[in-house]
Amino acid sequence: MAMHRTNVKTLSLLMLCILASAITLSPSTYNTASASSTTPSPGSAPNAVCPAGGQCFADVLPGSTFYEFANNLYKQDIISGYACGGAGEPCDDQNRPYYRPNSDVTRAQMTKFVDNARHMPGIHIETETDPAPFYSYTGNPAGIGVEGVNGAFTGTGPGVRGATASFSTGAVGVLGLVVPTNPGAFSAGVRGINNGTGSTGIGVYGSHAGSGAGVYGTSVSGVGVGGYTTGTSSTAAGVTGSAGGQARAVLGINTSQSGGGVGVLGIHQSSGTGVGGNSASGVGVFGTSAGNSEDGIGVYGSNSHNAGYAGYFFGNVGITGICTGCAGPVRIDHPLDPANRYLYHSSVESPDMKNIYDGVVVLDGSGSAVISMPDYFEALNQDFRYQLSAIGAPMPNLYVAQKVNGNVFRIAGGVAGMEVSWQVTGIRHDPYSVQNPVAVEQDKADADRGMYVHPEAYDQPDSLQIGALPLP
Fold first, then answer.
1. If pLDDT is split at 50, 70 and 90, which confidence band does 118 have?
2. Whole-model pTM?
3. What secondary structure, in 3-state letters, does 322-375 show?
4. To the nearest 10°, the Cα dihedral for 455, 461, 466, 472?
5. 258 burial class (0-12, 13-18, 19+ CB within 10 angstroms)?
6. Strand 419-428's sheet: what is its strand order?
7. Which of 63, 108, 166, 415 could cross-link 171 (Cys pair, CB 3.0–4.6 Å)?
8. Residue 28: is its pLDDT beyond 70?
9. Whole-number Å distance between alpha carbons of 424 and 216
10. Residues 419-429: pLDDT tens digits?
């Protein structure tokens, strides 16, 4: 770059301001090396110290415009000045050097300034007023605005670090910004890349020393935090969470008070699983509704296809409360064609909590029989009903000779040696059934008035179906 000599002095002062304002040192880093310096090697510590009183140069006095700047650069061995004792530059009691602030600067001296500063370790920028004390720019489409590299093969030192001392809400240590309002796909304000090809290492890592969030994301109308994996194996994951003890590995919260929205949503765009849960020995998927409304639902499943399943359980199912439904057919492999057909049987229904017991007994020589019931029979049941059917011969005099007492009953009036089919029903009266009786006829809740469990059975639209929730 061409330069007129008449501007070099001004450039010298300007460079002094720029370099010195970018340097802050603590006194503990100074040592007592000689004021005459050579270009420091990378990684070396400052080797100059100002004499007592803090004035480094005999001709840069306290209160002058460049006093602090000159002192800072001297302490960092970026400038060393001229030894005292020359013409018009007598030595004082500290043998302070002279800076000659009004002298011209040659291109060689300017090169020395810059090269010394370039090699200095530990230089950092500090300012109380400048909102952007460090600025870097590149117009190269593949360029890097700011790059930091830690070349050590051990340790945990960062390549780039940002910190803030602010206590204000929204303060950030590092801020990444995508400037355009219509950026390209996958544009990122901050991106982390781990070049490892194994299972260790993390692209972006966030941590919090207290109970706050390690990683947090917000979006006006899109996704606050998104994850994606290009892997296709069953172990690959776009987003994963892990925790120990009673902590939650993944927690989704919707703060809406209107009843809409979803805390956690899983979507599969084909025939896979939208949300999957797995536990080695506990609960794979757990749902609960903490509200006091009877409309609250712990787990809700829906299938828009009439032949599909809103819920499918492969294994045993346990229910501690009331199971409400309109039909209860049992489906099994058809015993005559198990490979190609199903067999459906419906359950027996009653307005009562009724238990049914039956069997076949052979009458003794007097045409009677004593039938023993389970030992819990009377503890569980009351209000017994009896049915007797003769097998093999008419028995018009067959009757119940003694009702249930002590968990047995007796029949008589039959033909000796013949069989009788018997059936006894009882109404439950155990503590749970007494505390939770079936209300056979009930008025619909106000919110369900005018709606139907099965609207299609009454030629009504699906929009009038009770309990149907919109897809999340």
1. low
2. 0.52
3. CCCCCCCCEEEECCCCCCCCEEEECCCCCCCCEEEEEEEEECCCCCCEEEECCC
4. 140
5. exposed
6. 354-362, 419-428, 381-391
7. 166
8. no
9. 65
10. 999 999 999 99
